[in-house]
C-alpha cells in the first residue's frame, strides 16, 4: 500500500481537475450531459485511479490503476481537442490544459515504469 497523498502526480492531477471544471463552465448548457460531463469524468478519473491503485495490495494492481489513469489522460486530451473542433473553445484556450494533461501523462508513464521494475 502506498500513500497517494505523497505523489506529485496525484497533486498535479487534482489541479488539472480544477482547471477542467473552470474551463468547462463556458460550455453550452445543453452540453451538461454530453461532452461537459464526459470531460469532467475523464479528469476526475485520473486522481481517483491513482488513489485507488495506491490502496491495492500489490504493485501489479497499482500499475494497472496507473495505466487506467493514463488512459483517462489521453481520453481527456482527445475530448479537449473535440471541444475546440466543435467551437466550445477558442484556438488558444486548450493549450495550457493540454500541456498540463501531457505533463501528468508523462509523470504517470514514469511511475508505471518504476513500479513495474519493482
Please describe what this structure looks like:
With 118 residues, the chain is mainly α. The chain is built from 4 helices and no strands. The chain starts with 7 loop residues before the first helix and ends with a helix. The model has no long low-confidence stretch (mean pLDDT 95).
Features of this protein?
mainly alpha, de novo design (two linked rop proteins), 4 helices, elongated
Structural class of the helices, strands and pairings?
A: mainly alpha
CATH class: Mainly Alpha
Order of helix and strand elements from N to C terminus: HHHH
Percent strand: under 5%
**Could you describe the largest sheet, including whether it forms a barrel?**
none
If you average the pLDDT, what whole number results? 95
What is the gyration radius calculated from CA atoms?
Answer: 15 Å
Amino-to-carboxy terminus distance: 14 Å
The assigned CATH architecture is Up-down Bundle
How many β-strands, per DSSP? 0
Amino acid at each position: 500500500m502506498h500513500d497517494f497523498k505523497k505523489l506529485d502526480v496525484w497533486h498535479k492531477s487534482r489541479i488539472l481537475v480544477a482547471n477542467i471544471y473552470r474551463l468547462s463552465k463556458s460550455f453550452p448548457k445543453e452540453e451538461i450531459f454530453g461532452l461537459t460531463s464526459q470531460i469532467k469524468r475523464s479528469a476526475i478519473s485520473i486522481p481517483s485511479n491513482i488513489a485507488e491503485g495506491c490502496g491495492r495490495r500489490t504493485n501489479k494492481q497499482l500499475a494497472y490503476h496507473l495505466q487506467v489513469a493514463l488512459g483517462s489522460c489521453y481520453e481527456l486530451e482527445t475530448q479537449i481537442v473535440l471541444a475546440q473542433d466543435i467551437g466550445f473553445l477558442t484556438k488558444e484556450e486548450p493549450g495550457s490544459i493540454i500541456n498540463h494533461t501531457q505533463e501528468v501523462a508523462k509523470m504517470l508513464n514514469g511511475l508505471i515504469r518504476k513500479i513495474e521494475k519493482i
